[in-house]
Design goal:
This protein has helices at residues 8-13, 32-42, 44-53, 56-75, 81-113, 134-150, and strands spanning 121-123, 129-131. It is mainly α. A two-stranded antiparallel sheet has the order 1-2. The longest helix has 33 residues, at 81-113. The protein is rod-shaped. Mean pLDDT is 78; it is low at 129-136 and 146-166.
Length: 166
C-alpha cells in the first residue's frame, strides 16, 4: 500500500504491505475482523489465489461472498450458508401454507355471507362444466380446521409399543 497503515491482511499476517498488495483494496486497515474471519476459514494463500484468478471488476463481489460464507461457517461450521438458505426456504413454505389456509378461510366466509349467489362453475378441458354443490361448500370449513390443526399436532403411531424393559 505504501501509505501510513498496512491493510488488514498484511497487519494480521505481520508482513510489509506493498503498493501492489492484492488484499489492500478489499480489506482496509479499519476493518481487521473482516480479513480475520476469511483467513480463518479459507486461508490467506487460497484467498490470494482466488483473487488473482478473477478479473479486477469481479474481485469486490468475490470478497463480499467470501466474507459472507466465512461468517456463516463461523456461526454454523457444518452447513454454513446452506443451513441459512434451508431455514429460510422452510420458513417460506410454512408461510405459503398459512397464506393458502387464510385465503381459503376468507373464501369460506365470503361464501357464507352471500348464499344467494349462484354456485361457481369449473370448466373442464373436455368442454363439460361442473357445478360446485352448496353441500360441498359447507364441508370446506371442516377441511380447513383439519389443515390448521394437523400442522400443530403430532400424529401418534397406533402400532408403537412400549418397551419391555421400561
Amino acid at each position: 500500500m505504501g501509505g501510513t497503515s498496512p491493510c488488514a491482511s498484511c497487519k494480521l499476517l505481520r508482513r510489509r504491505c506493498t503498493k501492489d498488495c492484492i488484499f489492500a483494496p478489499y480489506f482496509p486497515p479499519d476493518d481487521p475482523h473482516k480479513f480475520a474471519i476469511v483467513h480463518k476459514v479459507f486461508g490467506a494463500s487460497n484467498v490470494s489465489k482466488m483473487l488473482q484468478e478473477l478479473p479486477v471488476h469481479q474481485r469486490a463481489d468475490a470478497v463480499s461472498s467470501l466474507v459472507y460464507e466465512a461468517s456463516a461457517r463461523m456461526q454454523d461450521p457444518v452447513y454454513g450458508c446452506v443451513g441459512a438458505i434451508s431455514y429460510l426456504q422452510n420458513q417460506v413454505s410454512e408461510l405459503q401454507m398459512q397464506l393458502a389456509v387464510a385465503q381459503a378461510e376468507i373464501f369460506c366466509i365470503q361464501m357464507q355471507q352471500e348464499p344467494s349467489c349462484p354456485a361457481p362453475q369449473i370448466n373442464q378441458p373436455d368442454g363439460k362444466s361442473l357445478l360446485l354443490a352448496s353441500d360441498e361448500l359447507r364441508d370446506l370449513p371442516q377441511y380447513l380446521d383439519f389443515a390448521a390443526s394437523s400442522s400443530s399436532n403430532v400424529v401418534q403411531d397406533p402400532l408403537k409399543r412400549e418397551s419391555l424393559w421400561t
